[in-house]
Amino acid sequence: GIDVVRPATEVRPIACNARQKLPGKSVVTAIVHFPPNAYTAAHRHPGSVVAVVMSGILRSQLNSGAIGTYTTHQTWFEPSVALHNFVENASAAESADLLATFVGDENCGPLVIPEL
């Protein structure tokens, strides 16, 4: 068979704010754009993440649990360094967008730890 390479997501940070009451931590807000059929493989985040679907339909799985399907204005929470098995655009025709708020280390990064 032929391996089909699926489009990657595009992470666009839009704000980074240092937390005066949490030394060494910052909050990063980013828009994650999922082209049609986009897929992100297993990864972790150094800090917790709150995800809000802005448009489209996304499928996501954390810590090998149930696969969730999320539509506009639905949310999920990822604890610090939890295994995010995958997240994908459920549509091969429509794009999807996610607003992600990361609580991470100072200097606004890194946001993602690839799972090797």
Secondary-structure topology with pairs:
Layout: E1 10-18, E2 25-34, E3 39-40, E4 43-44, E5 49-55, E6 58-62, E7 68-70, E8 75-78, E9 84-89, E10 96-105, E11 113-114
Antiparallel strand pairs: 1-2, 2-10, 3-9, 4-11, 5-8, 5-10, 6-7, 6-9
Structure in a nutshell:
The protein is mainly beta and 116 residues long. Helix content is 0%, strand content 52%. The two termini are 24 Å apart.
Task: Give the strand content.
Answer: over 45%
Based on CA atoms alone, the radius of gyration comes out at 14 Å
Give helix % range: under 10%
Mean of all residue-level pLDDT scores: 91
Q: What does this entry look like structurally?
A:
The chain is mainly β and 116 residues long. It contains no helices and 11 strands. A 5-stranded antiparallel β-sheet has the order 1-2-10-5-8, with no helix packed on it. Strand 1 (10-18) and strand 2 (25-34) form a beta hairpin. The protein is globular.
List keywords for this structure.
five-stranded antiparallel β-sheet, 116 residues, mainly beta, four-stranded antiparallel β-sheet
